[in-house]
Amino acid sequence: MELSSEDWQAINRCVVRLYRELDEQRHPRLLLELINGLVPLNSAAVSLLKPPDDLVGIGFPDDFVTPELTAQVARYVHQSPYAAYYLATRDASWKRTRDFMPVEDFHKLDIYRHALKGAAVNYQLGGFLFTMDDTAHIITLHRTHRGFTERERDIVNTLHPHLVTSYINAIVCSRAENSVSKIKAVMETAPGAYGYFDRQGKVEWLQEKAKEWLREFFVGEAFGSGNVPASVQQLVLESREQGAAPKQLEQVKGDEILVICIGSSPVGGWIMRLERKPKKPLPHFRPLPQLSKRQNEVLQWMVEGKRNTEIGRILCISPRTVEKHVSEILTTLKVENRATAILAAMESCAKLNAG
Q: Given a cut of 90, is residue 84 above it in pLDDT?
């Protein structure tokens, strides 16, 4: 879906404000407020999850995340399709609840009945930000009475690289004590690859991983003395001419995309962050060895949020046959219903992917 010029203008205004906030504590709250200006919400949260169930929530509005809500979500976080999916795949694309399962099935889960229902969270749109210090940063947007549209998903997907980069910049700057050497030290443990340009736009340092990624994705392009391609150097010059405005460039190679984000540094100059990701989201289902080929086919479409009648049409079998396969899947996986079967499948796929 093509975003309108008004959408792009609003996104650009948000990007500028995101990069200006360099306080680690204030940044996620600003992030949620800005998204609310683009995609109106009833509530939202940035969840800091250290598996299996160590959870800290930052909410919008300020009184949304209560100790009681955090405790209940932490208790049932293993049932969250977002947590299971993002921890398994690190896929950066935004997902709606119904991308995983029918909404009515999600509403049967304990995490909904004991936590989200009382918070009036009936519809969700979620995104994976990053993992730092073994803690996953996951964002979820919430509505009570209506779901999220494809246009709204396109808006947050477009904004996503800047949500990640500006948030990491804020963390780095808050921990770096306004020192270039401290910034460099913190970035050694941050996700992605980094470089730093001084006030004149010259490369002061570049991580080895950043050098490798740039050489891999910019084959055939001229590189300057700082080991960066001309097009990346041009980004820094454009930012300098435009009052340190944030800049982004995407470079495609095969099935991957390298995203280059340039943002101003609190000590002067620019921080460059590189993120590589697949052109298409990673598959979040792998056949489970304990199931038959047909059972895996049924389970895969269950994971994709299809109902029995839809699965029957796709596989050219009757809904009754699908129901029989679903029953066998539940028995084999030792779970109570199709919603928990989906979550069990995603957790198993995570273990298979890790192996």
A: no
Closest CA to 136 of 204, 210, 48, 222: 48
Tokens of 40: 């109106």
Q: What CA–CA distance (Å, rounded) separates 121 from 144?
A: 5
Q: Is 148:140 a contact under the CB 8 Å cutoff?
A: no
Q: How far apart are CA 280 and CA 252, in angstroms?
A: 12
Domain span including residue 227: 180-278
Q: Of 124, 146, 172, which residue is a domain's last? A: 172
CATH code assigned at 347: 1.10.10.10
Q: How many residues does the chain have?
A: 355
Reported as type and span, the H/E element at residue 122 is none
Residues 202, 193: Cα–Cα separation, whole Å = 18
Dig out the tokens for 64 from the structure: 């949304």
Pairing state of beta strands 135-143 and 193-197? unpaired
Question: Does the reported pTM lie above 0.85?
Answer: no
Q: The domain that contains 16 carries what CATH number?
A: 3.30.450.80
Q: What does each C-alpha distance from 126 to 46, 47, 157 come to in angstroms?
A: 10, 11, 10
What confidence tens digit (pLDDT) does each residue in 235-285 have?
999 999 998 889 999 999 998 999 999 988 877 889 999 998 877 765 567
In the block, tokens 């001309």 appear at 230
Residue in this structure with the two tokens 């909904």, named with its chain if needed: 112
User: Percent of the chain scored above 90 by pLDDT?
Assistant: 57
Q: What φ, ψ does residue 155 adopt, rounded to 5°?
A: -65, -50
Together in a domain, 10 and 148: yes
CA angle 124, 129, 130 (to 5 degrees): 140
- CA–CA separation, 123 and 134 (whole Å): 28
Residue 125, beta-bridge partner list: 96, 141
Tell me the pLDDT tens digit for each residue of 193-208: 999 999 999 999 999 9
Strands (E), the chain: 43-50, 54-60, 95-96, 123-132, 135-143, 193-197, 203-206, 247-253, 256-264, 270-278
Determine contact, residues 81/344, Cβ cutoff 8 Å.
no
